[in-house]
Amino acid sequence: MSARNRFLLKLVLLLPCLSLHQGAFAAKATLQTKGFYVSRPVFSEGSYSCEYLRFYPDGSVINVSSECGAQARRAINRWFHRDQFGKPPQYVSSGQTDISGNHLNFNSRLDDGEVVFWGKIHPRSLRLHSLSRITGYRDFQVYRFYPFAEPAVPAE
Fold first, then answer.
1. What pLDDT score was predicted for residue 125?
2. Beta bridge partners of 141
3. Strand, coil or helix: what is 132?
4. Which of 20, 37, 64, 76 has the fewest CB atoms nearer than 10 Å to its CB?
5. Can you name the residues that pair with 65 across neighbouring β-strands?
6. Distance between CA 119 and CA 29 in Å, rounded?
7. Between 2 and 138, residue with greater pLDDT
8. Residue 118: beta bridge partners?
9. Whole-angstrom distance, CA of residue 5 vs CA of residue 3
């Protein structure tokens, strides 16, 4: 057997071992529920805003557009919660997630319509496409995860 053939045989025999090894140590991306995800700032109608997404262990999601920055995230941390009946605050959209592996889909609804989201879960971020069924606007955003800075207590 030639040196080339021996090399190819070793390679063929080692490939399954390498793929098993990679799979065993690969970090599984999970949807985080002890904080919220924030998009990059978007300039619209004369000001910047960020999209905030909060997920719950029961599969529900709430989202809102608001100001950006550390001060805004601290303020959001105080009021961006469901009430004791599971309802989001006024003017906050909500929906249910569908997760398959690291793929995420959900429709977020408010009185005037819905926005459809789909994309992938990464260890510290979400990469989501969206389509507004209200305006027809399509977008792609990377949402960074921010854990709660303090215990998540709804504002009174």
1. 96
2. 128
3. strand
4. 20
5. 51
6. 13
7. 138
8. 105, 129
9. 6
pLDDT in tens, 46-63: 899 999 999 999 999 999
Alpha-carbon gap, residue 97 to 55, rounded angstroms: 8
DSSP H helices in the chain: 3-25, 70-79
State both tokens at 20: 């098993």
Find tokens 């550390």 and name the residue.
Answer: 70
Please, is 57 exposed, middle or buried when counting C-beta atoms within 10 Å of its C-beta (0-12, 13-18, 19+)?
A: exposed
Tell me what pLDDT residue 27 has. Answer: 53
Model pLDDT for residues 98-116, shown as the tens digit of each residue: 999 999 999 999 888 999 9
Please report the pLDDT score of residue 66 as a whole number. 92
How big is the CA angle at 121 (ends 40 and 52), to the nearest 5 degrees? 35
d(CA 101, CA 115): 22
Specify the amino acid at residue 88: P
Residue 86 has a pLDDT of 83
Amino acid at 105: N
